[in-house]
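Anyone? Bumping this.
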Amino acid sequence: MSVKLTVMLLLSIAATSILGTIIPQNEDPAAYFRAYGEFVYRLFDVLGIFDMYHSWWFQFLLLLLTINIVICSIDRISATWKIVFVKKPSFNLSRFRNLSQKETFAGNHPPKELEKIYKPIISKYFGYTKVEPTDKGLCIFAEKWRWTRLGVYAVHLSVILLLSGGLMGSLFGFEGFVNIPEGEKVDSIRIRNTGKIHYLGFDIKCENFNISFYDNGAPKEYRSSLTIIEKEKPVIQKDIIVNDPLRYRGVNIFQSSYGKMPSDSTFKKKTPASDPSGEITLNFDNRESGASFQIKTALGKPVDLPEGFGKFVIVEYIKAAEFRGQNIGEAYKGILTPADGNPLDVLLPLHFPNFDRMRKGALVISVADQETEAFSLGERSEQRYYTGLQVTKDPGVLLVYAGFIMMIIGCYITFFMSHQRVCVEIIKGKAKSRVIVSGTANKNKMGMQQRVKKLSDKLAKL
Amino acid sequence: MSSSNLLSITTFIYGAAAFFYIANLVFKKPFIGRLGTWTALLGVAGNIAGIIMRWVESYRLGIGHAPLSNMYESLVFFAGTIIIIYLVVERQYKNRIMGAFATPIAFLAMAYASMSPNINDRIQPLVPALKSNWLIAHVITCFLGYAAFAVAFGMSLMYLFRQRDIEGKSSLLARFPKSQILDELNHQMVMFGFLFLSIGIITGAVWANSAWGSYWSWDPKETWSLITWFIYATLLHARMVRGWHGKRIAYLSIIGFMAVLFTYFGVNLLPGLHSYGSV
């Protein structure tokens, strides 16, 4: 058990961690089998590589690291403890006299008077001061921040807090998910990775789910209206969005995904758009002039566009168009043939009249006379969504957060604060006294030299 | 003028600053060094103005958010932070030779942001996952850390060059800061970077817990930031407990910065939650 071993452990955890970032974790076994072949698959499976951060050997490394940190800290802290908790700090004059770098200047008064002038200044900068007579005059010792020697133990303790918080979470908490169709409720969830069913002890009801988009088609917000029902009585109602979960009885409910219910004949409604012989009204907006015009057409019937924009024809009706993996509902596919240029494919979703602005063309095309609930897909009667919720409980979170705070404070103390000691020796001379300023610190010795020089310059001016 | 134009101009200003610092190193004219400092200051002004303009522009587009949401914006912030940290070090240690090793990194980051065809400089709306107050705290602290590590990397390179000529035969290397100072600066920068990397990882964890319900899920970016943290933790222990100095610390610092670069760029090639950093 030594620092060497701890560092070896740190590095081996770092090295093995890389493996899990290269091999995707917790995928379908069949996919692994296809990707790696039988032999490698079996080998990796035995070694737990497919869920390596939870494998026995990785957890064992973490445990070893924890034990090492504890033992190394205990081993060292007794020595530090004796230094930190002394009633009256003692100073060793010869140690300061032996320092290679010292600042020297002449003082205009005898030592006793200089002591009166210097002492308040020194104590302002360093707090604790102590005056001792020497063989040649006197000596003012001062020091501050003795306790910062304990900073490093705060950092180590914070790591222990983090790891024990993590352990507590994995023993007494859970991480699961559940999909709830709009208007329905559930009383249990599935645990991630194992797939086990976990009963919550209350019901979650999804009143409705809404998704909204930006003008460019990127998703803007996923919103689920949830009600918690306990013993048949609603207790809490809240709309959750990503980054704003619902918390109830230590269980956190997060917006995680969504999807469309499998098409169900009772929800299907005859829409005029799907009628291939029907008339379609299109809006054309000229981006530069701001002019807009409407043209009536039908599927497969080309129209000439005014202002020399060429021709446009609708070639296809799509029931559930996809854009960047998102379902954007019904849409027409058209071909725009500019007067001087190549034909372009244009997608016209019925429910997003601004969709075509994304193309950044001179002409913005949209389908007119549609029920355009511009930014709300969820309320459309013919489609029913389900919301995908992440449901977690982690009683270790408080420990982990305490560890976080302790780590930040501990690192700051360890890196940027040091136990600083100075010695101002005043030697009696004939007319003038000689003043020697020196100092040490347990860390950042170069910075300490600068502080000693600064103090000396300050005292020399008095 | 749009923010993208201003930031493109800033790229050239950083290029000029890097050129002056290198010229100062080679031709030993203090005048060129001063020119480098002033050019770098001008670049920082342009960089900050560009970031503020971009912020304002996003509000004009109706999708207002802090310009810290994608690869382009993070690179711009990264470059600015490197230059600011470097200028502070230059002022403290009164040595412009270091500029030849720090400013080119900022210039490269900025040039990559402005010119790479893989990087989109358009202002995009925030996807739901990024809509959180933690975004600003998380990105700023991470990049303060990364920038400090970048400067530490520059110091380590200088240290290794300087070490090759202990007798002081080369008049070029003689103008480098003393190797003790470079070693100490490297250590200081690593401590600064380590503190901010820790805060960056922590703010990310707290954010993940409020957005997804788990503070740590071993996604590749998280894992790589932890690997980086481990490497620098090793460096700090080697120095503080075992008293390592000089060459070995310089090598560790270089390895650490390679891990930083992989966390920043390489991870986008792997699947994971942080994929929005790639566009």
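Late reply, but here is one note on the structure posted above: Helices of chain A lie at 3-22, 29-47, 56-84, 93-97, 111-126, 151-172, 397-416, 445-461.
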